Amino acid sequence: MEPPPLQKRRRTTAEEPTTIHDMPDDLLRQILLRLDSPLWLVRAACASKPLRRAVIAGGRAFLRLAASIHPPVVVGHYYERSMRPIAFVPSSSPAPAPVDAGRFALKFLPRDVTTTAYWEVSDCHAGLLLLRDGYNYPSNIIVCDPLTRRYQGIPHPPVENLKRVGHAFALLDGDDGDISISSLRVLYHFLEAPHVCVFSTTASGGAGGWRFLSEPPDGGYKHMGHVAGRVDGSLYFGISTGNVKVLDNASWELSEVDLPIGIDTSKPPKRSAFTVVHGAGHGRTSPATTRIVHVHGEDLEVFRRRVSGDEWVLEHSIAKLSEATRGLFGYRPDKRLEWTEVRVISVGNGIAVLSARDRRTDKWLFSVDMDTEEMKVVPKEPYRGIRWTCTYTLPWRQFLRACPC
């Protein structure tokens, strides 16, 4: 008996090919977390409704997780050169795509800001720039968003305190925990008591206003130092005497950071400088690595923050930078290289650019890789006349707002 002829089997629903429409949002978000840049996240969300749904359904929690895993994407730097207006210089190796420098130029600001050398970039945070007039006192203040080309002026602190000399400006998140051109806070540090004044755009019924913070019992606001950077939204201040303080973004509490400093800061030149440097984690889904670079004279220390907790550990140190970099600049072994000043003038993802001056005031530039400790010579021309640079990074939330559901 012959077997019955083979019949063509009908494909069942269970055997239908799986598409992106069949994947749950949680799985899609796990895939999206592996993207290195907010630009790729925006492009993915624009290319597919399921991906866009997964991003928006995840809300702020998903964006905070994405930002914690990946370091900020450095687009470029705003340069402050002696006797020149502020200029934007794209990063030499932007991760997502080539950057159009004109897109981040400040030509949309008033003419005196873009054509004179009096204005300075005091801070850059979440895609916003804080500018101050270094010529007039009290300083004029402007906050701007290069992406949307919007800006607003910030009024001076209260009239009765205009004679108090300001020391540092910084941008902070708004009262709602987010930051935008219409929701932000500005910190102003005075050298005289009361020492800290904060402007909020949402104060006084939305008209904005200043208020002074109550001095802590230990008088901690008096010696806040310079802004070293941000870690988890809180401001870190480097003290020239050799320690770091952190100002909590929500509670305004000021506390000292426990850094295992090994340099004898009592020895000349008796001045320390600290800079926060963010870098990538060890894997695609590993948390981003945060470090603090401490420069004291010619000595350098790098502290790394542990993934769990707030503990900082000494990762590596260089006892004498002039000796460690001698071969970089072609010095003969028998020639002694002595530096009188070393400072960090620029940072990128896991990279710090240092400027050194010798006793003849010659300037030398080199970079230090935080992961490998590798040092390289940096061309002088891009940094000629530079007083300092402000790193501009792609803000995750602002880019995603341009992607409606």
TrEMBL record:
- Tell me where in this chain the F-box domain is found: 17-65
Q: Where is the signal peptide?
A: none
Xref: PANTHER family: F-BOX DOMAIN CONTAINING PROTEIN-RELATED
Can you name this protein?
F-box domain-containing protein
**Origin organism of this chain?**
Urochloa decumbens
